[in-house]
User: Fold this.
Amino acid sequence: LAAVAALAAGCCSCRSYQKKNRRPLVGTEWQLIQLGGKAVKPEEGKFTLTFLAEENRIAGIGACNRIMGRYEATEKGALKIGPLASTMMVCPGMEQEDAFTKALESTTHYDMDGPMLLLL
Assistant:
């Protein structure tokens, strides 16, 4: 399976650091660093996603809109996100934001690689 999105809670190239510093899925603010195999550039916006324990909700920010919805996750790595809703502002970076929400809604699994969350 190929990752549709990679999100990071902090970056370090040191493999031993990554193994010891895995972040929990819930309660961590994840920042999008890669989407569809391409790095997200800082000028494209700070896309974030947080999984909240309360009622299995997610909250995030796209190029300029707030994203919200629900998720279901298992300890074995299954993950379903959606349906999602968002505010409706128009701004530069909307194509990237649309791709982000579509990737989230098409996610079926997740994996952790140190401080990185891979959505598959």
